Amino acid sequence: MEFMEMERQLQDNVTKRLQAILEPEDLLFDEPMKDYTTFRVGGPAKWMAAPQDEQQLRVILKICSELQVPCFILGRGSNLLVSDNGFEGVIVNLRKHFNKIEVDRENKTITAEAGASLPAVSQAALSAGLTGLEFAAGIPGTMGGGLFMNAGAYGGELKQVVTEAAVMTNDGMILHVPVEQMALGHRLSSFMQTGEIILSVKMQLTQGNPVVIKETMDDFNSRRREKQPLEYPSAGSTFKRPAGYFAGKLIEDAGLKGFSVGGAQVSKKHAGFVINTGSATAADIWNLCNEIQNRIQNEFGVTLEMEIQKLGSFDQQKTKG
């Protein structure tokens, strides 16, 4: 009983301190995370805070640090699997206010805040006749999440165009990190280790022909619609590409195309995608991914590493049915 009272007091303290700095519409309670992830699954977040500026973000981080409350930075949730149990901490939603895009036509640069969507940034480049971001036109993520994962498609990746990023450290300092210090690799960046929060990203593009740029973007999007199960909720490619192999090919060769656990299924269209057929829980998706990993390890001796981030506790989750 004493523990429960201490927990209640902690929650009240967090709530009061967040309410003191945020507008009422920017602080939500027990917000269902299924509404904020492309998988369309996930339980409630205890708090969801949408800072309007860097100072509010700095104070939110300070509150979480001082009260030892877990904190997670959310973009579009396009590479995220949230537990059915939800998240007993603060979700920081950067998508709501940190979404400005600035185009410098003279210097052929674009600076986009972390919450700006990659398709919107690509469209801004197209409008300015700048080439180099065509590959990102159909990636359903944000600028911050994209850099965090070094997003890429069709032979392009952010590593090729990014020059620097403004980031906030856990203690609230703002740094400008050059691309050479980001250790960008295949779905990798230094931010995964440092914990620095990406605020904005600067990219160097080149002058191009808007007609050709649009044709390229349309071609990529057409190929994406043709080959990927975009009609179902998913988080894109589920597994990282193992050295010397293609994850989707291994999964298909193992006879797992169409294999399902509860409402989660290996896409019949592209075996590299795990999809929510409509009734999946996070547990269904998690258990299906584990089964895929075990089968591929046993049959081919290849370790598949998940590309998707997981948030919350999955230990006690059970598949429905």
UniProtKB/TrEMBL annotation:
Gene Ontology cellular-component terms listed: cytosol
UniProt subcellular location: Cytoplasm
Catalytic activities: UDP-N-acetyl-alpha-D-muramate + NADP(+) = UDP-N-acetyl-3-O-(1-carboxyvinyl)-alpha-D-glucosamine + NADPH + H(+)
Keywords, comma-separated and alphabetical: Cell cycle, Cell division, Cell shape, Cell wall biogenesis/degradation, Cytoplasm, FAD, Flavoprotein, NADP, Oxidoreductase, Peptidoglycan synthesis
Signal peptide: none
Gene Ontology biological process terms from the UniProt entry: cell division; cell wall organization; peptidoglycan biosynthetic process; regulation of cell shape
Enzyme class: oxidoreductase
Residue span(s) of domain FAD-binding PCMH-type: 40-208
InterPro entries per UniProt: FAD-bd_PCMH, FAD-bd_PCMH-like_sf, FAD-bd_PCMH_sub1, FAD-bd_PCMH_sub2, MurB, MurB_C, MurB_C_sf, Oxid_FAD_bind_N
Primary subcellular site in the record, as a coarse category: cytoplasm
EC number: 1.3.1.98
Pfam families (UniProt xref): FAD_binding_4, MurB_C
Cofactor(s) needed for function: FAD
Keyword Iron-sulfur recorded: no
UniProt pathway annotation: Cell wall biogenesis; peptidoglycan biosynthesis
Active-site residues, Swiss-Prot/TrEMBL: 187, 237 (proton donor), 307
Gene Ontology terms for molecular function: FAD binding; UDP-N-acetylmuramate dehydrogenase activity
Family: Belongs to the MurB family.
Protein function: Cell wall formation.
PANTHER family documented for this protein: UDP-N-ACETYLENOLPYRUVOYLGLUCOSAMINE REDUCTASE
Protein name (database record): UDP-N-acetylenolpyruvoylglucosamine reductase
